[in-house]
Here is the input.
Amino acid sequence: MHVLVTGAGGHLGRKLFDHLEAQDGINVTGLDIRPVDHPRIHIADFGAEPDWAGHFDGVDVIVHLAGDREPAATWASSIRNNMDATLALYHHAAQMGVRRVVLASSNWVHGDKRFTDDRLNQDTPPGPVNAYGMSKLFCERTGAYFAAHHGLSVICLRIGWTQWTHGNRPGPHMAMGRWGQEMWLSDRDFINGVEAAITAKNVAFAALNLMSDNPGMRWDIEETKAVIGYRPEDGSPARCPVSIRLKSRLKKLLSRDLPRFSDRWMADW
Here is the structure.
């Protein structure tokens, strides 16, 4: 099997690339916007003209991790590097006979649910609150279109939080309080989930959560287990001392409760 990893020089991309390279029966190549010191990782700017499409020849599965991954990404960057780039990638993947695209989507697709009690799964209505989240929702929906009309299998993984720092250990040092801790994803569960998506049988399209098995979290990973055979090995309950609980309540008041009160008040004015 030939697997191509985009963003292969990045935080998650290089971990995945190195793991796949060590597996028997997998031929792995990579693309990245920056030069990477590896003979099988090539330079490609997915927001530019598609001279990179030739690298799709003979590829079975593309794991698409490239793009602007910052929640604070501007609209300009989100459109160029996430929306337009992924749309072009789908088009050329289908044209070149690629069987499947595994897309790095994001928990930010449900960014508006932070202060609710909603169970988060494939059927939960999306609610992105920034350009980044909107761009990932766009990539999911265009993936569904290519699956329905061009026969391209697309599995979107709404990836949790794999930290650059702290050895990716979970704990109260993580931002966003309970919400942040509950979306923790260990390095090996990230690898497990992507491998499961690469090899899953009979999946035309799916948008699935990819978090570790964290007790008490609202992200449903039972779908992920059932659809692609994901088997998480790690998990950690959220640890929320008083300072984090107070900060979360204040954030909820400012971001949800007060705006709702203001909207109702203005409607009655």
